[in-house]
Amino acid sequence: MLDRDGIAKRIAQEVKDGYYVNLGIGIPTLVANYIPDNIQVVLQSENGLLGMGPFPFEGKEDPDLINAGKQTITTLPGSSIFDSALSFGMIRAQKVDLTILGAMEVSENGDIANWKIPGKMVKGMGGAMDLVASAKNIIVAMQQVNKAGESKLLPTCTLPLTGIHCVKKVVTELGVFDILQTGGFRLLERAPGISVGQIKDATAGRLIVEGIIPEMKL
Predict the structure, then answer these.
(1) On the chain, which terminus has fewer CB atoms closer than 10 Å, C or N?
(2) What is the rounded distance in angstroms from the CA atom of residue 130 to the CA atom of residue 108?
(3) Looking at the 3D structure of the chain, how many domains does it have?
């Protein structure tokens, strides 16, 4: 199965030339390290940055340059820094082509829960609600099962929702899934060494398996 970097590397294949892309907190931030060299992409950070680059090498960090998750980052030539009001104006005006988010749960109808676990203190949902309401395309990067081995791809989310019917694709440590408009996780690819049977066992929501499922190419 894939580690966090493997998930990010596979998702980077979904990024197309000319895209404006927002990377959420967690696994999505790693996608910046795997953008192919032959395409031009502008990464947007909701705290007010266009033109985010890869993570800095150790010893090269600048504490004044951070992403929305407060991780130190780099900027690329031509990047622009501005206030969060302008940043969210871009998001709400649907200027972002692709949003990549982490999640705690995703339902077979494309609902996402990624901001709150009841009983645990949170500072707020941040920009997640704006992103899921406004993004043209949302891909979720997540672990498919929790620490107890229970599936996080569900018939219905049990945690407070961030958005409904908004997720288009999910990439986990086990596979790549499309979410159908009629509902259900359609399996597109298997992680290296993972069988369809293992994926079925780790998917609580409706799983659609059609034909021979290829392994991911990373």
Answers:
(1) C
(2) 21
(3) 1
